[in-house]
Amino acid sequence: MAGTGYEPLDTLKPWGDGIWLIDGPAIRSRGFPYPTRATVVRLRNGNLWVHSPTRLTDGLRAELDALGEVRHLVAPNPFHFAHIAEWQAAWPKAKSWAAPGVVERAAKNGLSLSFDRELRSEEAEGPWAGQLDQRIVQGSTRFHEAVFFHHASRSLILTDLITAIETAKLPAHHRPLAWIKGIDDSDGKTPPGIRWMFRDKRAMADSVEEMIGWGPERIILAHGRCYDRNGVAELERAFRRLLRDRMWDRELTRAKKKQAGKG
Questions:
Q1: What is the rounded distance in angstroms from the CA atom of residue 47 to the CA atom of residue 44?
Q2: Where would you tag: which of 39, 58, 64, 156 has the fewest CB atoms within 10 A of its CB?
Q3: What is the CATH number for 46?
């Protein structure tokens, strides 16, 4: 298998205070190779929380065991469940959490998966309350993604809401598709196939504004380049069309207040 450009794979890479990334092998969707990435957070009690687990190797398992005890496995949306079962087998005491729709889509793909809990939208689950904020992005009846904000590193953890493929890391014949989809690194955003599943744009915009309100400094993506600075600006850029009317209204309001102050 060709490299992803994010080597070394299957190893912990420090990202910030109590948080690590794992770059995994590419997965193919209709022939296109998407690099994969998991996120590991060490909670205050020393337990490990793993978001969107990638391929598990013996070496990676040893690294994780040296870091802490894996106790929480998160399948954050209906497209990210491929390696959950192998992680469940490796750490049978771990609790598994799934976004709405994961079990059903896995079954359609021939996988019978079992989870302990379905992730909620309103508040963070007890084991990581106060350390990670969480919400289910609203606006779609077909696609539900759980998003998380890690307080200690000021990092927003996304899965498929933004994809930013670094085309320089792709074989030349795959690059045009990334450009056509508008998910290349020059302007990463929600892939069109997922964006079209959000029929209620107002509800989706509310969710994006809530993420902006968390004030992330950095953004972790499951596919492509992460944003290591200017997190809020990157959200406003990636969702500028969704937020355009709201941003315009706010600018008008600011201008009117400024003008009234001068009067």
A1: 7
A2: 58
A3: 3.60.15.10
